[in-house]
Amino acid sequence: MAEIGYGYGSEWHLMRFMARHRKLLEKAIRESIGNVKKEEVFEWYDFLFGEKGIASDSELKGLSFLENRKNLDGYVSGWKTKQSWDAVFKLDDVIYLVEAKAHIDELSDNKPHGGESTEEIKDFICKNLEKLNISINEDQCLGKYYQLANRLATAAFLKNNGIDARCIYIYFINGYEKPNEIKNASAEMFIDEINNEQAVLGLKGGHLEDLLHHVFIDAKTGEIINPKHQ
């Protein structure tokens, strides 16, 4: 778990909105998801204690948030300790895997992915998405947009095992003003990068819109932004 930036960045703003602007955050999420009954209550999963660092908290990793994982075969063993979630919540019996972003660079990286489990992870991503009739470019799924590929595949894996799950990405507009380094992004900038990552990954078909949701919030004003084109 990376150290949380004081006053800037995706983790900071997610924690801030969860603590101080919970109703607004949940309202934005409901609007993005749609078709959620008003009486349904958000069940946010707590983090764990014990990790070194200022906060001494440990993100939820792999499938650790599930009460019973005994009957889930085919999950990539290496992710049990390496894959982390910014937050996880349940709403209307659906599990949502949360990723927060505050600037464009957070959507991609140029690190090598897979390690000794390269073929296993690639097979996991492609097969689980294909079962939902969602195609993905096998040659790109371990590339710069690997995070989205493996997050979607994990949600698909849960769906394929009878557990309704989805990914939800929360983008904080004007959310990265680090001292001497401002990397704020507009909704349009995020959307351009979202479209690019989906094009590079070759994501299409099936019910991709039911597996992936996007939320845009201005970190300074709390305005919920609903882009017309995405």
Provide a descriptive summary of the structure in words.
- The model has no long low-confidence stretch (mean pLDDT 90).
- The protein has one domain (10-225).
- Helix 4 (118-130) crosses helix 5 (146-160).
- The protein is an alpha+beta fold and 230 residues long.
- The protein has helices at residues 10-20, 22-33, 79-82, 118-130, 146-160, 187-201, 208-211; strands at residues 43-44, 48-49, 57-58, 60-61, 84-85, 87-91, 94-101, 165-173, 177-178, 181-182, 212-218, 224-225.
- Helices cover 32% and strands 20% of the residues.
Chain-wise SSE layout:
Layout: H1 10-20, H2 22-33, E1 43-44, E2 48-49, E3 57-58, E4 60-61, H3 79-82, E5 84-85, E6 87-91, E7 94-101, H4 118-130, H5 146-160, E8 165-173, E9 177-178, E10 181-182, H6 187-201, H7 208-211, E11 212-218, E12 224-225
Parallel strand pairs: 7-8, 8-11
Antiparallel strand pairs: 1-6, 2-3, 4-5, 6-7, 9-10, 11-12
Helix pairs in contact: 1-2, 4-5
